[in-house]
């Protein structure tokens, strides 16, 4: 009897929860369907370039895209894939440590996949894994793309939000130029305004941490070949040094000129001060009272 009463009490306690379960299940199913039907997109894919690709060297990757997905990276020559972590909505980060069995080269292709539900978006890294020397314009292989000039112009006094940076790349026509700025989120493309001339403006956004010496990389892709270059100048022209006006002390050429020295006899011990004072006063009086030649 007591057991039956306890079971009845337990069922009565669970009854209020049943409607919630019945209501939440369709909502969760609908949310899952919407989540599954999202078409993912990758807005940016970056790597912090390294000086060499030796075992133990870390390759930090950053991907910007649709939030709530699963991002993985595959590097040609690597023995394993890298699964990235979503550190904030739409931002995925991961570090690949080169192993002794990896055969990664500076020209190894790197592909990122972003899966949301049953849909996948892919992007190929457009920059080299190895950092180019600052100012290096890149070396194109025979028959491949090349970059002849990489420049930036700015009339702004700082790099605050709203400041414009105009980038120009001269290189192989018919390609695609992708750029990345250290401190800026994601990547952007330069349109080809004339054959072989790529030009575009980047407007600094809120949240950017761009500095005058931030590294800027440009890559020119033509087919399956890519050439990269690093900007060899600061983003802002060095401020002109302040002009310091030298003040030249001008001396009066005929003020208190001693034209004659008069010896003044002073009775008693006047000392040196009295003699010097008398000499100066005598000269001044001689210049003003006399004939202009200092004689009394």
Automatic annotation (TrEMBL):
Phylogenetic placement of the source organism: Bacteria, Pseudomonadati, Pseudomonadota, Betaproteobacteria, Burkholderiales
Source organism, top-level taxon: Bacteria
Signal sequence annotation: 1-29
Organism annotation: Zemynaea arenosa
Identification of the protein by name: Uncharacterized protein
Entry keyword Signal: yes
Keywords assigned by UniProt, alphabetized: Signal
